[in-house]
Amino acid sequence: MALTTGIITNTGSPNATNIVVNIGNDNLSFSSNVVYHIYVWNTLVTKALIYSNSLNINANTSQILNFNIAGNSSYEVQFLVTGTVPTDTVINVFGTDSSGNVIHYQNVLQQELTQIGQLNP
After folding, report:
1. How far apart are CA 45 and CA 31, in angstroms?
2. What percent of the chain has pLDDT over 90?
C-alpha cells in the first residue's frame, strides 16, 4: 500500500528546515519493509526527488529519520509499506524548524496519509 502526505506548503513563519519521519512497527512477530521518497519544490512547478531509500523495520521496533529540506517552498513524503502485516506499521511526519521545534501545522499523522496507486519515480 503506497501512501503520501500530499504536498505540504513550507512558506509560513517559521518554515520547516527538516522533516522528521517516525516509523513504528507495532507487530510483535513480523518485520515490515518501508520504501520512502521525499520530494521538494524550490519553485511552484519543479518537483525534485531528494531522498529515497528502503529499510527494514523489525517487529516491535521503530526508526526515527531526519531529513534536511531547508530553502524549499513545499515538500511531500511518499511511502510503500510491505510485509506480512503492513497495516501494523505506523508512520507520522513532522516539519521542524531550525531549533528542532515541531511546526504543528505541518504534522501529518498516520490517519491523515492518503493512499496512492504507486510511488512516483
Report:
1. 38
2. 91
